[in-house]
Amino acid sequence: MINNNLFVGNNVTGNFKPQSEITKDIHDYSIEKLDGVLHLVNGNERIELAPITEIDKLIVKSFSDELGDLNESIYSLEKCGEIVVLLLYTYSETQKLLLESQKIRIHLLREAEKQICGEGYSDFQLNSMSEIVPLLRDLFINNRSIFIHRDKKNPDSFQMFGKKYRANVRMERPGIYVIDRFYKKYNKEYSFELTQIFGDIDFVLWNDSIGLQGNGQPLQSVKPNEIFKAWDEYMDFEQQVYENNLNDFGFIKYNSIEVDGDQLIFNLSENIYEEKVRNVELEFMSAYSDDGTKTLPTTINEVLAEKATKKNASIYLGECVNDGIFGDKLIFEIPRYGFFNGLKDEKGIIYVSDHSLKVEQKRRRKVVAKIDSKTNESANIIMKLSADDVVDDQLGTTYDPVNSDVLKKMFGNPNIKLKETYREAMSIALNTPDIALIQGPPGTGKTTLIKGVITRINRMNKNYKILVSSEQHEALFNVVDKLSENKFIPPFVSSKKYDADTDEEDNQHFEKNVIEFQRNFLLVCNEILRDVKKRDSKAVLITECVYILQDIKDNNYSKNYISTVIDQLKSKIISLGYYNKMTNEFADLYQCIKAPSTMNDVENLDFSTRNIIRKIEAQRTSLEGFYDDGARQLRDLQNLLERNEYNELLLDENTLNALLSEDDKQIEKCFSKYVEYVEGIKDRFIPREVNEFNGKVLDPKVLVKTISNKLSKESKEKPKDFFEIIETLMYRLNDIDAAGEVVKNYTSVIGSTCAQAERSGDIADLQNDKFDYVIIDEAARANPLDIMIPMMMGTKVILIGDHKQLPHYIESNYVNKFKLEKSRYSKFDENLLTKSLFQIIFENLDKAYKEGRIKFKRTIQIDEQHRMNPAIGTFISEEFYGGSIKNGERTVNNLNDYNMFNKKNVVWLNVKMFEGPEIRVDQSIARESEALRIISLIKDLVSKNPGRNLDIGIISFYKGQVKYIKQKLEENFPKSVLDNISCNTVDSYQGKEFDIVILSGVRSNTLTSPEKSLGFIHYSASRINVALSRARKLLIVVADADTYRKNEHFQHFIEYVKKEGYYGQ
């Protein structure tokens, strides 16, 4: 390719004598090499060029032998008298990519586009985005070639050089590259050589990109799957249903509000009935205003208008907590946000809240918008792979899925032989170019698989960032707890349950895993140090001092505690030789702990004052801390002060309202005033000592911090050896808070529910806002829009679930209404709303692979279960999986050894309708006769297995029955028995297992239609599958057989029990 402008790369110049007359301008000719001789070529005209010197002969040798478009040489020509001067650019290597599968597409990330168009280099002077690609072709492509310098440390990245500019480029997939930044200048005198890449190469704008697909397909062809369009329209329908419910419910008027501890009591204008408000989320609107002129809405439309136009127009209450007594009062927990004392004496209205709906829809509409914008690479990939006609020619990597270390982490035995489908599942997960889907039927070890995959990823690259996600906290913690058994740093869970009663549960989970990490880490440290004789070195002394100072801090700078350790601390400081630098601080500290206080010690104060002091010390005086739970701590403090009649110490109302407003600008504006308030109120309640000679206030906290800072300054001069560092870590990580911070800052695995996954990116130090791997457990249970949140955050995504078990939750009544009214809202099949994204992608990719439309296999079903006795496992396999699930060899050891039911593993206890039918309770269904039969059954199990800890799970399809059974259990058994019994609905039990499972069917009626007789159970094969597959040893169904045989799955089970198990009363 002729090039008469200076390009890139090193070059050589040669002189040639034409063997015939040149009749045209030299620039009208090109050069071809034929039989080892260079020729000037123009149409049919050929002029041989003879090299003049030996150096010129080397240029002939370096010139490409290819003709026409396949000639990759870059050169320029000039004529000087009778001599032709040829300048040939030379490169260390030339790679020719001539196959269709070898074409290269270089995508521009948004930031790179901004550099060129509008926000970057002004000399480009582009008028529109359409000019970018032609410009880049001119700058960087010459003769179908680009010119690069490889990064030896990172083989997937390189610098691309062109006229005046260079670009950072990285490979995302084979054939797929992205530019993240351009640089204006570079050195033309290269101290390194460039590689020439020759072939089908082009640039692609982000808006014209399909994501990182490698086939050059325009982005317009990336169509959001119909499931997302259906959900988008369904959300409009949900909003209309809310407005209808609001109309039906109307208003509840109240006259005033009382504050009682942590509760609000609304004094109503008239009596209210329990059935109107029970299990209904409510909010309220007050007549309060600063100028006293506010008028309450009188119609639903006015309420909706005010909510839409005014921020904080209403305050969310949630469900009422009345203890069975209603009348003219409604009781709620104090709201987290919005409530202040000025609202107490004003009247207002209570009505149905859309708070939860708004939070949910805001999150999900954000996902829909991101999919529609086509700006997220991962979303574009998912849209393509979820299409019915998907075609993809990518190949995966070839990492070996397991080694002895991985097997040891997974099973505790490095020599175990891994089953073939398990090995293949791990291989697909690790080597997929983009997404892997693993179907794990009941008992197939999905959690163990996740543990193995993460162990293997960590061995591949310790710097990989991994997000583990699930729809529910229970499933998430199940995985996190399993991963915490490994000896590397456990996951940090970034998502939180917002129910106040579960905050402590979250903290206990995290603390349990941190303690396990501490134990393992300290064992490793002791192993390292076991042969090292402990030395009384400066490093050890410094570490011990730090440990004492940390203990003082952990004990809240208590004078009593300081008095027990100050002599020890002083002795070590003297041994270090630092005491002369801290004499004054120690003197003041001794006086501080011995001198009489201006008040009694906190421990001797009355209960109310102690509570106030604790709440003062809990105030969040940093903005970051205040945004966490500072509003709640402030409100609690104000309530305590008011209850104890310290009204003069209350924060002024305007500042309080601003701090509780959730408005960041208001909070930041008055935050310094709040900090001053906290410091001032500390002086009122918390004792301060005064130096008797100079009147200086003595604060133990200040003195200890000064000693700590001086110790830190002195100790920095002394370098530590390896063993001293290990000793320091041991002392430091004995502190639970310090260990927790290590987990948070250094773990490679973040855990989060799908809905809250976005916040996990703020904790992990991500490259390009992407986790290297996103692993989602129970993926078929996640709402399609919620699961997209973590999926869009992953470079590679691994979905593990089972679409033949529980589906994602959706209100069945809403779906039925949507079906009846969908002509007004949607053209989509309502069945799309009940289908999981996992199922859609799994079925599409499984079919596409079998038909040869995709090259890399991304789907697999694990085909061996290790939970259930074969008598249980065989029925599950044949009934729900077409007989494809084998029983693991050890499942035969899960015997019914409870001295009941003739040692059979499947049991049906028939409770006929005449013994008592089903009844309606609390918008649910219960059946007393079954509950009493279950109580009798457990009594038999306990009496026939004395001294044995029975592991029992009781399952029902209905909350009403669960509540009734729990009540009967508490009436009949001591805590020692109850501790080993769990009772809940089937929807809470996916992923869990028990030695004994008792299923209470509840439904018992004379209705002939299966749909009416069994309700949702009749349609829910997935729930039946889960209910019957939780037991390891013994599965007992307590139900009315005549009612349940109307369903084909239960009919088959009854027949199976009569043949293989125990059928009785």
Task: Give a verbal description of the structure.
By secondary structure, the protein is α/β, with parallel strands linked by helices. 40% of the residues lie in helices and 20% in strands. The strands form 8 sheets. Strands 7-13-9-10-11-12-8-14 form an 8-stranded mixed beta sheet. β3 (37-42) and β4 form a beta hairpin. α9 (404-411) runs antiparallel to α11 (446-460), α15 runs antiparallel to α16 (583-594) and α16 (583-594) packs antiparallel against α21 (700-715). The termini are far apart.
Proportion of beta-strand residues: 15-25%
Gap between N and C termini, in Å? 91 Å
Q: What shape does the CA trace take?
A: globular
Number of helices: 36
Approximate helicity band: 40-55%
Based on secondary structure, the structural category is alpha/beta
Mean pLDDT: 81
Give Rg in angstroms: 37 Å
Task: Describe the structure using short key phrases.
1065 residues, alpha/beta, eight-stranded mixed sheet, seven-stranded parallel sheet, 20% strand, disordered N terminus
